[in-house]
Amino acid sequence: MGGGLCPCPVLLVAFWQDESEHVRMAARSIFHCAASHVIPLPLCNLKPTESNDMSFHTGSRDRHNLGNKREESISPKVEKQGVSQDEESKILAWLESFEVQDWISCVGGTSQDAMTSHIIVAGALAIWYPSLVKPSLSRLVVHPLMKLAMAMNEKYSSTAAELLAEGMESTWKECIVSEIPRLIGDIFFQVELSGPSSKSVKEISDASFSIKKTLVEVLLPSLAMADITGFLAVIESQIWSTASDSPVHMVSLLTLIRIMRGSPKNLAQYLDKVVNFILQTIDPSNSVMRKACFQSSMTTFKELVRVYPMVAVNDSWTKLAVGDVIREVNNANIRVYDMQSVTMIKVLDASGPPGLPTLLPASLSGTMLTTAISALSFSPDGELGITDYSEEQCS
């Protein structure tokens, strides 16, 4: 990488999962420093008249101005129209290339490493330098990136999962929104393989454990926040389709906590489903699941009460109350649950006084979001005490 030449990006990503933290950080730092100068030609978003200007990919002495030149070289017309089928074919050919290059011997890799490195480079560029690459790159690379993340590849899967998580909201979500529940299910399948009922649990390598940790702690929360309804549907189905002592249930609970902290407003309208799921994990009729999940379930309940003031428990933790969050104030309810039998014991009518919804009229340009019940609490004697109504306007 000497002689004034820019480093090869596919070589750098080979070190992104190195055992040494210093090596990982150095490889990523160099990648960012060099990325705008060494974008592979099939991926580069240039005007047609400049697409053959190979000075962008050589050791030109003017490379210190290259980042600005490339930004200026983007054609708004080309970006708006997208890329031709021929250009997309060239992108796919580059992504699927098995060509063995000189750098492979430096890392003791194979032709498979060449292709997986291409996928990582393309994914990273699509997230971090979207204006410098062709508009269709994210759509073309997202599925190979998903497959790589789930392939349990010791060199690249964790990196692929991290890239998917980092760019989920900004880059990938619109490309794979209908596939998110399936991907969540695939992650749970990997979690299930490491469960106590798995015969191969003793054979799991440190590398595989690290990959699964990245899938669960990094990728899964980002997927869940991108499609909350899909995530809730998957975890509800897991209650009945997996073993009672499966680690899947505890992972589901911990992921719910991550959603509460990362996307509380989006989860608020599904509080009933969240509460019902947590209660199922501590159902006394399923002693195995209750024993496995009880501590995590209580932690999740505590976080639920902390984040959402319309959820309350009494001092003895025997009663739980959940108020309607988004609903017509004249039709609001409070559901009260018995924590010991995990059943709903009453539904209280929490309708507001007549005329309340008109106290804060919506503007012509905004929409009215009615928060039916914004706060609940139990009195010291265990009775439900305070109910607060409010409305807020969202433009």
Describe this entry's structure for a reader.
It comes from Phaseolus angularis. Residues 59-80 have a biased composition (Basic and acidic residues). InterPro entries: ARM-type_fold, WDR72-like. One of its GO terms (cellular component) is cytoplasm. Residues 54-81 are annotated as: Disordered. The protein is α+β, with helices and mostly antiparallel strands and 395 residues long. It folds into three domains: 1-166, no CATH class; 175-304; 309-395, no CATH class. Helix content is 51%, strand content 11%. The chain has a four-stranded antiparallel beta sheet. Strand 1 (311-313) and strand 2 form a beta hairpin. The longest helix is centred in the middle third of the chain and has 21 residues, at 206-226. The chain is elongated and about 75 Å long. It starts with 8 loop residues before the first helix and ends with a strand.
Q: What is the 3D form?
A: elongated
Low-confidence segments, given as residue ranges, are 48-82, 354-369, 391-395
- The level of helicity is 40-55%
Query: What's the story with the biggest beta sheet?
Result: 4 strands, antiparallel
State Rg: 26 Å
Q: Strand fraction band?
A: 5-15%
Number of helices: 17
Count of extended strands = 6
Strand order of the largest sheet: 1-2-3-4
Distance between the termini: 52 Å
Q: Give the helix/strand class.
A: alpha+beta
User: H/E element string?
Assistant: HHHHHHHHHHHHHHHHHEEEEEE
